[in-house]
Design brief:
homodimer, alpha/beta, 6-stranded parallel beta sheet, 20 strands, about 15% strand, elongated
Chain lengths: ~500, ~500
């Protein structure tokens, strides 16, 4: 049953989780059903593998072609004169068991069965799925899927994906029980500055289940943060044990759907799924240390902070704001998220009073009250970050973004040149601000996030390259930071428990 | 006191609210403190008024200049040989009472006092503010502010704003107790496709209070939806009566800050403000029919749907999805927002089965299961929208957006030309889809929103021009639609009560 609440034991992970190296670090890949017809998945997937620059050898398999996309093709996988670590089967469901058998015969170590038409479509498909698993296990093969959009691994530049996504490289691993959502997250990651090290669209999880991917990524030193899109978990007990172990080492962030009757009906392809109302999900996640993402996209927001920022030592926030109204909103939103908009120390107030006009509010948030001087703003941020009362820093409007604002400024200057001058000025100032933020984070060892009310994705992506976290809304920042505080607490408690 | 709960009476609005026409539809504007120095607000505001193309006459006032920005200047407002409806005072706080007196002498009907330095800064400022109000009332003048970023009105092309914002024209009115948040919302509106008819940064509300703006916009036929950013309301009783009356006529959407101790501390400039925990805010808003925005930016999301879509007749949602995973997420999110992901009628299932492959899920959400055929998708949407069980339609992925996805596709084609071909193809398909959505809305009289997981703002703005509502996340769509359902219910109850 799904997500039963029980106290986790431990120690079995190593014995039950298999080594998934052939899936994520293959030295050679065969594409069974490879094709020169660009409307066929056997063409698209091969093209994705080739164009992303896979580091190993590629063997297209198709009995009726000599060459596919310019690469020598083989009539079947047995005729490849090399060790094949991984085979991607881009053939209809009916043909999959036979191909698995051939792969076993050829000594292939792992297969990815792309096609749908298995358990999710009814009795007949279920039989095909069972037969596929039976043959894979008999042949000692790992089986990804079936009904999957594929696998990605930055370690060997493997992009064996159905959709035309070209993931940004980074330190995040993603396990998704929906191919669409998973590959969309890879795509968005590029826009908002989240890079991936490994990805699997786990499909029907007929053989390799979620908890095995989780255990594997948990012990992968290239992976810093793990994301999970979950509809239902078959081996709930194993999943929880692995999650508890892994989340002691690195953040495990999950979005769980199937929280309502309607959701479970829609997810009926996962026949084992039962409703897990949000209260249950929350309780299970809390127990195992999994960080719950409130929305699908929040997984990326969370990943960005966990990858780039130190964990907070407490929940006291110091806020710099450009505009009092946003200071008011931030105070409410941070407090409601369980953070403390703390009183700043007398020393901090004194230092800030030397920089700001006499009518400044002398409180937290620190409102720059319209001070345009770019030499004062960074000093104010430094003073706030250095306050011993402050564990977390939020800088609102400190990075400006060259979108709407610059456009509007340009409107005032009546010329395209004027627009560009303002835009360039802001871009340069923003770049300096980003470098300053990086310095402050390493100087004080505290998480610092910037909130920039912009729809300008360029500034967000540029910030990400420098390791600076920029969110478009205060609400996102507050939610992410409060979850970092919770995770840091969970981790500390665990560490103390082990002593 | 703020937001006391009581049953509203009625009938006093007309007698206590003044006619704000001189503020929002002046035939002539004087700018006192106008300047040729581009770092002065007296220059920037005048430039904004000029460049937005104000339809009336403009009179710069400055005793030491002959011409300002090429326009004849006057030594004082009395020397202008014309009726001056509105004067913008861009002079320091200390000078404001004197200028108000001069305005009264010159027969000016309304003044906007831009400068800060009044009640929000302490005792001295409070005296200046009282003196300003005294002189304004004695002279029969309306006073906006002080401590305001100005006023905007599409009716006469008046953009008397401090920041360089050039609002998109439309049918929304915005009253903001924060100048920064207000003018930022105007800027964002352009990006996400929300146009404004009127705006006021209400500042300290020393004379004209929030409820008067609300009453005025309530009876303005050019205004279809009213947005409010509120920190505190002085005349709570009047505010509630006006809000109740106005929200019967048109949607009043509000974001209330000052919900926590920290928030109220940050908003201390509004000395009357008391904490209103979110439960209280919710209760008051519910009673008066005000729609509560969960975030500042949700005000724009809500405005977009209320302006463009018919009100839903019920809460039953039909969902079209491109990808099962998003269907699962949407089912959860819509249900959790209080909407019903309803069973579709047998007739609908039969009609859809004639178009979709045999293995389609035969339920709601309707998953297109990878059918690329652009002739089938619109027909499916039509069938769902026409179902008598369905009050609201959500189309996920129906509009694609030319952002990340097209970029990725282009990556696969290995060429810039390839990228552009795909991008253009998607843009064209999206435009057809938008036109189709407009047709369906008018055919069935039901609200239909598109959810497009894109960061491509072009597609969002283009959609808005056609009156098509596109949201970047399922959560936004669910929240907005559920609030539309609540408002429709409130309005119906009120109408029935009046019969």
């Amino acid at each position: 049953a799904l997500f039963r609440l029980f106290k986790a034991g431990g120690g079995f992970v190593d014995s039950e989780s298999r080594d998934l190296k052939p899936v994520f670090e293959p030295r050679s890949v065969a594409v069974i059903g490879a094709s020169n017809n660009p409307t066929k998945w056997g063409c698209i997937i091969l093209a994705n593998i080739v164009s992303y620059g896979f580091r190993g050898k590629i063997y297209p398999v198709n009995p009726s072609e000599e060459k596919i996309l310019g690469i020598k093709a083989y009539p079947n996988v047995m005729s490849v004169n090399d060790e094949v670590d991984l085979a991607v089967i881009a053939r209809p469901a009916e043909a999959v068991p036979q191909h698995i058998e051939e792969c076993a015969e050829a000594g292939v170590k792992a297969v990815i069965a792309i096609a749908g038409g298995f358990r999710e479509t009814g009795k007949e498909g279920e039989e095909l799925e069972k037969e596929s698993v039976r043959r894979a296990r008999k042949g000692g093969l790992l089986l990804v899927g079936p009904n999957t959009m594929g696998v990605y691994s930055a370690s060997v530049n493997l992009c064996a994906l159905m959709p035309p996504v070209s993931p940004r490289k980074g330190e995040v691993a993603l396990i998704s029980q929906s191919g669409n959502i998973g590959t969309n997250l890879l795509g968005f990651g590029s826009t908002v500055g989240v890079g991936f090290n490994k990805f699997v669209s786990s499909g029907n999880e007929a053989d390799i289940e979620c908890y095995e991917y989780l255990a594997y990524f948990g012990s992968d030193p290239n992976v810093k943060v793990i994301l999970l899109y979950l509809e239902g978990v078959r081996s709930g007990r194993k999943f929880m044990r692995v999650a508890e172990e892994v989340s002691e080492k690195k953040p495990v962030i999950a979005y769980k759907s199937g929280r309502t009757q309607a959701g479970v009906r829609a997810a009926k392809s996962h026949s084992g799924a039962m409703i897990s109302p949000n209260e249950i999900v929350k309780a299970v996640f809390k127990q195992t240390g999994i960080i719950q993402a409130t929305t699908v996209n929040e997984m990326l927001d969370l990943a960005k902070s966990f990858v780039n920022l130190p964990l907070p030592k407490g929940k006291r926030v110091g806020i710099l704001t450009w505009g009092g109204g946003y200071g008011v909103v931030a105070s409410d939103v941070f407090e409601e998220a369980g953070l403390d908009v703390v009183s700043l120390s007398d020393d901090t107030i004194r230092k800030l009073s030397m920089l700001l006009p006499p009518y400044w509010s002398k409180g937290n948030p620190v409102d720059l009250v319209g001070v345009f001087d770019r030499s004062i703003q960074p000093s104010c941020l430094d003073i706030i970050a250095g306050d011993l009362n402050v564990d977390i820093v939020a800088a609102l409007g400190f990075i400006v973004g060259s979108g709407a604002f610059a456009g509007a400024f340009g409107g005032q200057t009546h010329s395209k040149e004027g627009k560009n001058i303002v835009k360039e000025w802001i871009a340069k100032a923003d770049e300096e601000s980003m470098e300053y933020i990086v310095k402050l984070i390493s100087k004080y060892g505290k998480p610092l996030v910037a909130v920039t009310a912009t729809t300008d994705m360029e500034v967000v992506a540029k910030a990400a390259e420098k390791g600076v976290v920029v969110y478009p809304t205060i609400e996102t920042a507050a939610s992410v930071l409060s979850k970092m505080v919770q995770y840091a607490k969970h981790k500390k408690r665990k560490e103390e428990g082990r002593l």
